[in-house]
Specification:
The protein is of the alpha+beta class and 94 residues long. The chain is 21% helix and 35% strand. It has 2 helices and 4 strands; from the N terminus they run H-H-E-E-E-E. A 4-stranded antiparallel beta sheet has the order 1-2-3-4, with no helix packed on it. The chain is globular and about 40 Å long.
Amino acid sequence: MTVLLTRSDVERAVDVDEVLEVLGEGFRAPAPVQPPLRVRTELPGPGTATCLMPGLLPGVPAYTVKVNAKFPDASPALRGVVCLHDLETGELLG
């Protein structure tokens, strides 16, 4: 089952200190064997679109695909979504 989380859902569900520790570990981890592919393209107008795929971590049986839209004159200028997929089946998890 796919789960769509709002900001409030995430704030209620996570321990911020624990998340910061895990994020720190990720930033300190060695570079992945297969670096993610970043695709960026101009749009007809003031924006750009970027896709970063896949996001992988050793020992995690899932991957992420991140899609951003950047419009410098908008507030916020950067908006996007991160999709979490099962590594074996491709099922959208969140």
